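Recall that a protein's primary structure is simply its ordered list of amino acids. Everything else, from secondary elements to tertiary packing, is in principle encoded there. The following example makes that idea concrete.
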Amino acid sequence: NKFAFIQADGRTFRDVCYEAARRSTPTIVIAEEVDHLYRGHAGAEILSFLDGIKTPRNVAGTYVIFSTNYPKAIDERILKRPGRIDRVIPVGAFRRKAAAVCAQHYLPDDCIIPVKELGAVLDRCTAAEIKEIIVTAFGVTRVTRESLTAKTLEHARELLTGRLKRAAVECDEDMDSRQNDFKENGPGVDHDELLDEVKNMRD
């Protein structure tokens, strides 16, 4: 028996489902990082698709797996309505041994860091965080021209954590500032509407 495993995203997974139905091939579609597309504003088309109204029928079977690091950001109409997502499986942070195993998938073969040290610096990290820490660590080694070590990973984790905290603070401050402006000044000028009014006056 032949099975198709296809990696997609929120934009393309529907096209993949139609193609799988056309070919009548058993298909598993993995759509990653869907929070970027369905962050609180899913359109009617995708909702109808998930309801089955506009879903192509694949007699051989099509399974769609969504992944996200930020499930709370997904539109509640998708996340909480029965039938649109049949099952939610939380995947928590890895502990030491599992974190080390995960990290080894992203590290080159010539990078030899003892499993015990690797697990210690990456304990309680998710797979996405481990990948980002390693990418950051390699960036550090390009600057320092030193070998990648457990200490480098630890430093990269601290850098990443600080960056995320600053981003969260800046986001909150920006939202507070915009909200205060709105309360004080009301909605801003619609420049397109203003241009239309000027044009009508000239006519």
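The chain has a mean pLDDT of 78. The longest strand covers residues 4-8.
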